[in-house]
Specification:
The protein has 290 residues and is an alpha/beta fold. The protein has 13 helices and nine strands. It is elongated.
Length: 290
């Protein structure tokens, strides 16, 4: 029998609905648009069009993967973040909308800087770093990550967004003081580090625990360990009066604020749209204030 776009779309919605997915309608539509290479208007205009057997097979395969909780962004292979378009796959954490608050905050904080040099710790897919250099034409970024796979993805995304000439990627461990000391000083240090305790793993969505790189999500037994290490190493990587900016987890703002008070001024906490304290920033007073 001949299968129309509309019939296949409804079949996909029903399958994902029966799998208990809250976003069944959105997922079914976006996966079909990905297979047919259509935007939303094109999909609506082609609902009566007959799909090919290969297209039907490809779509059904994607629907089954989504029904098993594989993230939509990994299945389509792309994600929009801030004002950029990024390749998205299992090599790195999926960029989240709340992280756009971190980008917006840093762009605003860097307005007073000329040719700012930025360090992105845990660069992942490159979403934060690329967004910043796309919006600050004089900025350059060094992105570091412990994952070679993530760095490969970030480099691809930098090229895709035509900013490779202003980005440098290095593999290294933020817990390695010798590596940290080799990076030099920056006008801004930014990080969205792992900040979830392993004890919280059981309460998280299977999309995260089964498919995303766990090294980018979980901080081990101490969810603050990355913040402690970065703040403890700050004199090696941040210039006096430079900006430190973190994305933080729910309920972590007070503890991180206390860590920063010893050597930072103008500390600000920014909430996300849900009212959760999501970003913390401060101006470094300099090594003599430690």
């Amino acid at each position: 029998m001949e299968v129309t776009v509309a019939w296949l779309l409804n079949k996909g919605k029903d399958r994902l609905g029966s799998a208990g997915l809250d976003d069944s309608a959105i997922s079914a539509e976006l996966l079909l648009r990905s297979v047919l290479k259509l935007d939303r208007a094109g999909l609506i205009l082609n609902l009566s069009k007959i799909v090919t057997p290969d297209q039907e097979i490809e779509y059904n395969t994607l629907i089954e993967k989504r029904a098993n909780h594989e993230p939509l962004q990994y299945l389509t292979g792309w994600v929009d973040f801030y004002n950029i378009h990024l390749r998205c796959d299992k090599r790195a954490l999926i960029p989240r909308p709340e992280t756009e608050i971190l980008v917006e905050t840093v762009i605003r904080k860097l307005e007073r800087f000329t040719n700012p040099r930025i360090l992105d710790i845990g660069v992942g897919s490159g979403n934060i770093a690329i967004s910043i250099v796309k919006n600050i034409e004089s900025a350059t970024v060094v992105g570091i990550d412990i994952s070679a796979d993530a760095l490969e993805l970030a480099a691809y995304n930098a090229g895709h967004n035509n900013v490779s000439n202003r980005m440098d990627f290095k593999r290294g461990d933020i817990f390695d003081r010798q590596f940290v000391g080799s990076l030099g000083l920056f006008d801004c240090v930014i990080s969205n580090p792992p900040y979830v305790a392993l004890t919280d793993k059981g309460a998280m969505q299977p999309e995260i625990t089964q498919f995303e790189p766990l090294i980018a999500v979980f901080a081990g037994d101490d969810p603050l360990r990355f913040f402690k290490t970065i703040i403890g190493s700050i004199s090696y990587i941040l210039k006096a009066e430079g900006i430190l900016a973190f994305e933080i987890g729910m309920g972590q703002a007070d503890d991180i604020l206390k860590m920063m008070q010893a050597c930072f001024t103008e500390i600000e906490i920014t909430k996300d749209l849900a009212g959760i304290e999501r970003v913390i920033t401060g101006k470094y007073a300099g090594p003599d204030k430690r």
